[in-house]
């Protein structure tokens, strides 16, 4: 099935690829998460398209991630601290922007922001909010929010895939930043 999907993705256009990802998600992922991920992708698409350039920079990606989390918050009604995917993606977005402003290279900024996503997801163990408000505090304190953990996992996987792809394309003996 993956080759079928990949064949329909316009991989030479980052904004359109994200747009098609959103459409794919809306077809195959049910529940609230499916809707939130569709919103996430569609907001990223709109942000990437708004820059009006064919080349997408790391700063454009950082802006798209921020626009995405803002859209999910707006339409989903959650904010940081509500035990949702936003508890992973908002820290990731903030870290990505901070690391890029500090002068880190794109790959390093992406990987470090994925660590912030994981830390944000883990921090949901300390939160009593959202759908978990009816679960006893003892149970909530031992389990991070599944949606936040899922978001952190795919974000981290993407960061490591970018780093590993870059490393495999470098001459022997070199390493990615």
From TrEMBL:
<dbReference type="InterPro" id="IPR050861">
    <property type="entry name" value="Dihydroxyacetone_Kinase"/>
</dbReference>
<feature type="domain" description="DhaL">
    <location>
        <begin position="1"/>
        <end position="160"/>
    </location>
</feature>
<dbReference type="GO" id="GO:0019563">
    <property type="term" value="P:glycerol catabolic process"/>
</dbReference>
<dbReference type="GO" id="GO:0004371">
    <property type="term" value="F:glycerone kinase activity"/>
</dbReference>
<dbReference type="Pfam" id="PF02734">
    <property type="entry name" value="Dak2"/>
</dbReference>
<dbReference type="InterPro" id="IPR004007">
    <property type="entry name" value="DhaL_dom"/>
</dbReference>
<protein>
    <recommendedName>
        <fullName>DhaL domain-containing protein</fullName>
    </recommendedName>
</protein>
<keyword id="KW-0808">Transferase</keyword>
<keyword id="KW-0418">Kinase</keyword>
<dbReference type="GO" id="GO:0005829">
    <property type="term" value="C:cytosol"/>
</dbReference>
<dbReference type="InterPro" id="IPR036117">
    <property type="entry name" value="DhaL_dom_sf"/>
</dbReference>
């Amino acid at each position: 099935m993956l080759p079928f999907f990949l064949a329909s993705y316009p991989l030479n256009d980052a904004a359109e690829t994200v747009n098609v990802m959103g459409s794919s998600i809306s077809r195959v992922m049910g529940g609230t998460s499916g809707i939130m991920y569709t919103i996430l992708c569609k907001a990223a698409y709109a942000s990437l398209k708004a820059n009006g350039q064919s080349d997408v920079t790391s700063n454009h990606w950082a802006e798209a991630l921020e626009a995405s989390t803002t859209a999910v918050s707006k339409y989903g009604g959650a904010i940081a601290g509500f035990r949702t995917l936003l508890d992973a993606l908002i820290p990731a977005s903030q870290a990505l922007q901070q690391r890029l402003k500090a002068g880190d290279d794109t790959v390093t900024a992406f990987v470090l922001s994925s660590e912030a996503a994981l830390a944000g997801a883990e921090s949901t163990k300390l939160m009593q909010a959202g759908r978990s408000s009816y679960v006893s505090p003892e149970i909530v304190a031992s389990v991070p929010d599944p949606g936040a953990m899922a978001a952190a996992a795919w974000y981290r996987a993407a960061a490591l895939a970018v780093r590993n792809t870059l490393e495999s394309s470098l001459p022997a003996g070199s390493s990615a930043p």
